[in-house]
Write the structure tokens for this entry.
Amino acid sequence: MSDKKLTAAPVSEAICLNYTDFLAASCKKRWSFVDAIYGVIPVFGMVTRSAPDLPRSPAERLKALALQIISTQLSDETNIVRLITLAAQQHVEQFDILLPYPLSEPQLEAIREEYVKPLKLEQQNERLRVQVAAFSH
């Protein structure tokens, strides 16, 4: 037997966002004027408020920030593009979105067109796997 200890290679945390939970939280949220403004900011100018107490885990941080940008006043496609944009800003290259129903091909195409940057979407029933292009820096 070898004296060498086997160590596992670091595995990145799998991220799965439950879209229905975000919509439910958005419905229950008491909106201030500032919250309402954040809810309708166009995706190209999307900014999230930074909080000093944001979780350190990429998955938890992404979920906390997503609560700021998901709105029942927007289409599912726009909300999903906002999630993808937020994930890219947080340097999350791959994640899953658990949806209440499978998206149609026209909806998937609308997401690709609205996001503009290279993007891979794979759908298996109600689970949408999103892969954004690797970061160059």
Summary: DSSP finds five helices and four strands in the chain. The first strand starts at residue 16 and ends at 18. The helical segments are 19-28, 33-40, 58-69, 76-89, 105-115. Confidence is low (pLDDT under 50) at residues 1-11, 42-47.
